[in-house]
Specification:
single chain; about 300 residues; alpha+beta; Helix Hairpins; Heat Shock Protein 90; 3 domains; 5-stranded mixed beta sheet; two-stranded antiparallel ribbon; about 55% helix
Length: about 300
C-alpha cells in the first residue's frame, strides 16, 4: 500500500511537472511571438498550442489590443499621407493665384496701355478673390472643429431659401446646360437653422452636384417619417439633389465628407476639397444630417432636418 501511494505521488508530481513545463513553454512561445510582432509591425495575432484557460484568456485580450493597435497604426499612416498630400495641395492652391498675381503685376508695371491695365487689374482681382475663398474655407473649417462653436438658430422658410440659392446659380446651370427640375411636395416648410450657414450649405451642395454631374439636376423637397427608438417616428424635412455622374468621374462616396477630398483631378486648381466637409459640419451644428449615395450612376445628396 505504501509503495502504491508513493507511485501515485510520483505520477502526480510528473504530471504537475509536465503541465508546468508546457505552461512555461507556451508563455515563452507567446513572448517570442510578441517580440516578432513588435519588431516587424505584423498584422498577425498570437496563437497557442496548449489548452490552458488562463493563457487562452490572456491571449485573447492581447490579440484584441494588437488588433486595436494595428488599426490605429494604419489610421495614423493614412493620416500622415493625407496630411502630406493636404499640405502639398494647399501649397499649390495658394501658390497658384499668388504666382499669377505676381505675373500680372509685372505686366501691369510694364505697360501704359489703359485697356491692358484694366484687363490685368480685372484678372488680378479674380485671383485675389480665389485666394480669399481658399483662406475663408480653411478658417471656417477650423472653427467648425471646435466643440464649443455654436450657431444661432432661427425659424427659416426652407422653400424660399432654396429658391433664392438656385437662382444664384443660374449662370452656372446655363454654362453646364443644366435645367433644374424642382419638386416641392410641400410649400412653406419651416425649419430651425442659421441663415448664413444654411446658405453656405446649399451653395456648397449645388456646386458639387454641378461639378460631379452630367445630366439635369433634380431637386426634391418632402416631409418623411423617420423611425426612432421604441417604434416611434418623427417628421423630417428631406431635401435631395440628384443628377447623373459624368463618365470620367472618380468620386468615392465613402470619402466625399473627408477634409480636403477632391474626387476629380480637374478640381485641383479651383477647390480646397472642403466644401462638403464644411456642409456636413454646419448641418450637424444645426441638428441636421447630410447623406450621399450613388445608385445606378446617379449622384444623390440628401439633407434631413427636424421640422
Amino acid at each position: 500500500m505504501q509503495y502504491f501511494i508513493i507511485a501515485i505521488l510520483i505520477i502526480l508530481s510528473l504530471a504537475i511537472g509536465i503541465y508546468l513545463w508546457l505552461t512555461l513553454r507556451q508563455i515563452k512561445d507567446l513572448s517570442e511571438q510578441l517580440k516578432f510582432l513588435i519588431k516587424h509591425e505584423s498584422r498577425m495575432q498570437l496563437t497557442t498550442s496548449f489548452n490552458n484557460k488562463l493563457i487562452n484568456e490572456m491571449t485573447t485580450l492581447i490579440n484584441s489590443q494588437i488588433k486595436d493597435m494595428t488599426e490605429l497604426r494604419i489610421h495614423l499612416k493614412k493620416e500622415k499621407v493625407t496630411n502630406e498630400d493636404t499640405i502639398a495641395g494647399l501649397s499649390h492652391d495658394i501658390r497658384t493665384p499668388l504666382t499669377s498675381l505676381d505675373g500680372y503685376l509685372q505686366l501691369l508695371k510694364n505697360t501704359d496701355d489703359p485697356s491692358k491695365q484694366k484687363a490685368y487689374l480685372a484678372i488680378m482681382q479674380e485671383r485675389v478673390e480665389s485666394l480669399r475663398k481658399i483662406l475663408d474655407e480653411l478658417f471656417l473649417y477650423a472653427k467648425l472643429q471646435q466643440a464649443d462653436y455654436q450657431l444661432e438658430l432661427e425659424t427659416i422658410n426652407i422653400n424660399e431659401a432654396l429658391t433664392q440659392n438656385i437662382f444664384m446659380f443660374y449662370e452656372d446651370f446655363k454654362r453646364h446646360n443644366i435645367e433644374p427640375e424642382i419638386n416641392f411636395a410641400k410649400e412653406n416648410v419651416m425649419i430651425q437653422a442659421n441663415p448664413n450657414a444654411l446658405e453656405r450649405v446649399l451653395q456648397n451642395i449645388l456646386r458639387n452636384v454641378i461639378l460631379h454631374g452630367a445630366g439635369d439636376l433634380k431637386i426634391s423637397l418632402s416631409i418623411i417619417e423617420k423611425e426612432r427608438e421604441a417604434e416611434e417616428t418623427e417628421s423630417k424635412l428631406s431635401l435631395s439633389f440628384s443628377n447623373q455622374m459624368r463618365s470620367d468621374n472618380t468620386l468615392r462616396t465613402e470619402q466625399v465628407f473627408d477634409k480636403f477630398y477632391k474626387g476629380d483631378s480637374s478640381r485641383q486648381n479651383s477647390s480646397t476639397g472642403l466644401g462638403l466637409a464644411i456642409a456636413q459640419n454646419l448641418i450637424k451644428k444645426m441638428d441636421g444630417e447630410l447623406h450621399v449615395e450613388v445608385a445606378d450612376n446617379i449622384f444623390v445628396l440628401t439633407i434631413l432636418f427636424p421640422v
